[in-house]
């Protein structure tokens, strides 16, 4: 369980694969360069700390991690909480909080909490991710427009009030550099996807600003020189009172890091058809967060965009992640002195694009059509993140989810359901058991028991991966799913997308009223198609026979309605 993936794949390290991993690692290192600098500055620390994080943390995550292709480094998810810690406790406080978060992550991993992270409700994750995106966007307005505000307020509302007061002080040259950078980042992928638009924007804007001597703020004017070597390790000054105050921020960092890392690992698993070790991944993330701050780094986690870039460029083993870290170290040593000339409006443009990508605006809009309980959790978590504090948002969002889950279960409970569960009867006692049905070749039937909330949805997705060969028709039995939440709806949508990739026809059976209504609101009902959603397994099997060109058999004599509408 706690064997790093690197040691598990040593036998696969052929010269050809090593060459692909090295090439991918170099490309990912180039992609990570501007992001590492931008995330550090947005977090309230000097730019080299982001590079150090990507080098030290990125190497450890790949060397010790539980994923084949995970790329570790600083990410946008941390910006809000880190900026607040630096403001209140300084860089020393940030080092302490990061080390504490690392210890918490390692404990979570050794306690085998990795699989439990999947149970975090989808609306909570989207709520605070979208909230963080809004805050990141808001924090970049001053540099993008060149407003020259000495101290931008940390509070969201105060920040926009300050922008309004200084709007007349816009620096046209800063705005033009920022706008040019933004346009390059957005449209460059149409020219080439191998080299990121952010690198092209940095080169173009830096050359333009330097040789035309434009009046724009740069890394040098704001932070001075960028070191061209890693600093010697140093321990922070621990103070019990500070440690006590940093417990909750450190826990928030650990939770964010765990969610980001495991989400990235799951996404990459789907891309390469692999399975990561979630607990080993948490241990590696913890080790990276303990060691990185000793060299001056900030929190580390798995970066979804960089990990996806690694996969797309042929990376298939942890070697790619380690090469990515070494590439950044070489860039830092050889070209660090030139990085000081990068204009601040360009870094602001990079972060504005990051914020847009983080916002998950499409998912957010879809979740607004989910059951009311999910919408309440989504909007509450989003609002608290933006207006108040990320730590409070996560705490209250989780509590709301738990209470709403309990309320939902209580409202659904009835004597028949409870009696059926207490009887613990054999499958033969079930008149609608699949064992008494004729299932055609090429058809697979999966049954979900219990409410399709976040836990059940996660387990169901795991079950789907066990099957190696995709069937021609997959029937999902939902007769025991009386309720479905946003995570379940999202899982169904992902399953539908996966089915289309493998040309597998998806059919739903035993769909109750609440899940049916939720699917209609979410838009999945039309995607699956009315002709593929049934109340009873016999109808679903007949639909599969029709698709396979076989004769229908109709309902069996011992047919018992699965849903209420079959009684009518």
UniProtKB/TrEMBL annotation:
Domain STAS: 441-544
A GO cellular-component term linked to this record: membrane
GO BP: any one term: transmembrane transport
Keyword tRNA-binding: no
Transmembrane segments: 22-43, 89-110, 122-149, 169-188, 195-212, 246-267, 287-305, 317-335, 342-359, 379-405
Topology versus the membrane: Multi-pass membrane protein
InterPro entries: SLC26A/SulP_dom, SLC26A/SulP_fam, STAS_dom, STAS_dom_sf
Any Pfam family matching the protein: STAS
Keywords: Membrane, Transmembrane, Transmembrane helix
Subcellular localization, as worded in the UniProt entry: Membrane
The keyword Heme is assigned to this record: no
Parts forming coiled coils: none
Main location: membrane
Name this polypeptide is given: Sulfate transporter
Annotated organism of origin: Chlorobium limicola (strain DSM 245 / NBRC 103803 / 6330)
């Amino acid at each position: 369980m706690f064997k790093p993936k690197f040691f598990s794949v040593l036998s696969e390290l052929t010269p050809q694969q090593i060459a692909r991993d090295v090439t991918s690692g170099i490309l990912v290192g180039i992609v990570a360069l501007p992001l590492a600098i931008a995330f550090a500055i947005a977090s309230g620390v000097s730019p080299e700390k982001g590079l150090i994080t990507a080098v030290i943390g990125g190497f450890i995550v790949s060397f010790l991690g539980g994923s084949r292709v995970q790329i570790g480094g600083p990410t946008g998810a941390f910006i809000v909480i880190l900026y607040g810690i630096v403001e209140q406790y300084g860089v020393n406080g940030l080092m302490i909080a990061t080390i504490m978060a690392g210890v918490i992550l390692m404990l979570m991993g050794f306690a085998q909490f990795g699989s439990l992270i999947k149970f975090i409700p989808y609306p909570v994750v989207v709520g605070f991710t979208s909230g963080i995106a809004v805050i990141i966007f808001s924090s970049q307005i001053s540099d993008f427009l060149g407003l020259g505000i000495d101290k931008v307020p940390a509070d969201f509302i105060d920040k926009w009030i300050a922008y309004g007061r200084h709007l007349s002080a816009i620096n046209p040259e800063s705005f033009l550099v920022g706008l040019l950078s933004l346009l390059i980042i957005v449209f460059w992928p149409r020219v080439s996807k191998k080299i990121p638009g952010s690198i092209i924007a940095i080169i173009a804007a830096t050359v333009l600003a330097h040789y035309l001597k434009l009046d724009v703020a740069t890394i040098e004017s704001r932070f001075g020189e960028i070191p061209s070597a890693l600093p010697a390790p140093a321990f922070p000054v621990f103070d019990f009172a500070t440690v006590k105050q940093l417990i909750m921020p450190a826990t928030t960092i650990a939770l964010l890091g765990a969610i980001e890392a495991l989400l990235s690992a799951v996404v990459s698993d789907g891309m390469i058809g692999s399975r990561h070790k979630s607990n080993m991944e948490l241990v590696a993330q913890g080790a990276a967060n303990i060691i990185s701050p000793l060299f001056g780094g900030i929190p580390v986690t798995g970066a979804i965009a960089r990990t996806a870039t690694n996969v797309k460029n042929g990376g298939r083993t942890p070697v790619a992640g380690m090469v990515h870290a070494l590439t950044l170290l070489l860039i830092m040593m050889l070209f660090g002195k030139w990085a000081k000339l990068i204009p601040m409006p360009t870094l602001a443009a990079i972060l504005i694009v990051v914020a847009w990508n983080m916002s998950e605006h499409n998912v957010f809009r879809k979740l607004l059509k989910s059951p009311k309980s999910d919408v309440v959790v989504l909007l509450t978590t989003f609002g608290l993140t933006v207006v108040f504090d990320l730590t409070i948002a996560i705490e209250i969002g989780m509590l709301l989810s738990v209470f709403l889950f309990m309320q939902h279960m209580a409202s659904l409970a009835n004597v028949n359901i409870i009696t059926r569960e207490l009887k613990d009867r054999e499958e033969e006692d079930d008149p609608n058991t699949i064992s008494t049905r004729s299932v055609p070749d090429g058809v697979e039937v999966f049954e979900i028991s219990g409410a399709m909330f976040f836990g059940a949805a996660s387990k169901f997705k795991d079950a789907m991966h066990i099957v190696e060969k995709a069937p021609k028709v997959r029937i999902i039995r939902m007769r025991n799913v009386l309720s479905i939440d946003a995570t379940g709806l999202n899982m169904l949508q992902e399953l539908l997308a996966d089915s289309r990739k493998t040309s597998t026809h998806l059919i739903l059976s035993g769909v109750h009223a609440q899940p049916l209504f939720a699917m209609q609101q979410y838009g999945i009902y039309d995607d699956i198609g009315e002709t593929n959603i049934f109340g009873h397994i016999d109808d679903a099997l007949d639909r599969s026979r029709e698709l396979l060109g076989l004769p229908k058999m109709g309902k069996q004599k011992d047919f018992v309605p699965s849903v209420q509408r079959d009684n009518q």
